[in-house]
Structure formats: structure tokens, C-alpha cells
Amino acid sequence: MLNIVIFGAPGSGKGTQSARIVEKYGLNHISTGDVLRAEIKNGTELGKTAKGYIDNGQLIPDALMIDILASVFDSLKDSKGVIFDGFPRTIAQADALKAMLKERGQEVSVMLDLEVPEDELMTRLIKRGQESGRADDNEETIKKRLVVYHSQTAPLIDWYKKDGTYRHINGLGTMDGIFADICKAIENI
Ligand code: ATP
Ligand code: MG
């Protein structure tokens, strides 16, 4: 299996580039943000819990998130590979992902870090909030999410460098240009 972690700050383009990777390489896409938003939309207990954290710019607790991820992963049958979008977001989640994949005879093939400057992230997310009405894409919540990104998620860059799977991608440019760089990184695995 080709298992890809797509990584980056909120608004770095993980969802956009994931869709293209899925199409080109025939992978399954697991977006934890999309999973949680679907639960909120359906009014489930999990959705109610998640909404409290998301609207406040915080992460869902690791134990809960790790269970969700494992059950979504196990629901995929005969997959050529998976793109993990929005997971892991903490060191505990990265450790859990490694262990979960190992138990299933799998591993992360590559981690793609989409790097985008902070002022550009802010511009993109405010625009997305205006167009899509996503509740957490407002200036106050975006600022909290960026603080959470720097304190809890960015340490994963060193984690994946040590793991040997880290690849840097310049996330500033045209969507096609960025996708071309991603394809190069995937084909170099
Ligand atoms: P992007 O714009 O690059 O797709 P994003 O940060 O805007 O990224 P999502 O990945 O959709 O958005 O996540 C939205 C919210 O869902 C997060 O702010 C967080 O509250 C929650 N969430 C998603 N994934 C996780 C996770 N792995 N652990 C904890 N909380 C998560
Ligand atoms: Mg997303």
C-alpha cells in the first residue's frame, strides 16, 4: 500500500491537493475534518462533542480521534493505499498511527509538509469562511487554530524527519505547480 500523510497548517491546501492525489494514484482519502463535519451535520453524539472543540479552535482529544481513525481505516477494503489528511495532529496521534499501521503490516510511505506563510493562510481561510460559511473559518477561531498548530502539530515535522519519511513541499504557488512537486515526491519514494 502507498500510505501518504498530507500535513500542513490550517488552510495550507491539504484537502485540495488530496483530491488530486486520490484521482491520480487511486488512493482512499481519510480527512478527519470531513469525518467530524459529517458527524456534526448528522447530529450524532460524536458530532456534538466534536463541535464544542472545533468551534473553539481546539483539537478533539487524542484517544477519541485515534479510535475514529482506526475504525475508518478498517472500513476500507482492498485499498491501494490511503491519504491521511488532518491526521496526525499531535505526537500521540503520530505514535498511534505508526502502531496501528504496524499491527496491520503497513507503514507511512511519505509525509508531505505543505508549507505556507502565515499571512497567506489567514487570507485563504477568511475567504473560505466567507464563501463556504464554515463556522471555524472566522478570524478569531483561525487565530486560535494557528496557535494550536504551532504548539501541538508543528512538532511533528521533527518527528517525521527522524522517521525518515519527511518531504518538504512549497505550498505557495499555483495548484498545478504544487501538485507537480507532490507527484515528484511521491514518485521518488
Ligand atoms: P485544511 O484547511 O488544510 O484542510 P483545517 O485545519 O482547516 O485544514 P480540518 O482538517 O478540516 O481543517 O479540521 C477541522 C477541525 O477538526 C480542527 O480544527 C480540529 O478541531 C478538528 N480535527 C480534525 N482532525 C483532527 C485531529 N487529527 N485531531 C484532533 N482534532 C482534529
Ligand atoms: Mg481540510
Automatic annotation (TrEMBL):
| Chain positions covered by the region annotation NMP | 31-60
Pathway(s) it belongs to: Purine metabolism; AMP biosynthesis via salvage pathway; AMP from ADP: step 1/1
Provide the GO MF annotations for this entry. AMP kinase activity; ATP binding
| Keyword flag Protein biosynthesis | no
Q: Where in the cell is it found?
A: Cytoplasm
Q: What reaction does this enzyme carry out catalytically?
A: AMP + ATP = 2 ADP
- UniProt binding sites for AMP: 32, 37, 58-60, 86-89, 93, 134, 145
Which EC numbers characterise this protein's activity in its record?
A: 2.7.4.3
State whether keyword Lipid metabolism applies.
no
Q: Which GO terms describe its cellular component?
A: cytoplasm
The record, for CDD domains, names: ADK
Fill in the domain comment. Answer: Consists of three domains, a large central CORE domain and two small peripheral domains, NMPbind and LID, which undergo movements during catalysis. The LID domain closes over the site of phosphoryl transfer upon ATP binding. Assembling and dissambling the active center during each catalytic cycle provides an effective means to prevent ATP hydrolysis.
Q: Which family does it belong to?
A: Belongs to the adenylate kinase family.
Assembly behavior: Monomer.
Question: Which purpose does this protein serve, as stated in its record?
Answer: Catalyzes the reversible transfer of the terminal phosphate group between ATP and AMP. Plays an important role in cellular energy homeostasis and in adenine nucleotide metabolism.
Please identify the protein, giving its name as recorded: Adenylate kinase
> From which organism does this entry originate?
Candidatus Phocaeicola excrementipullorum
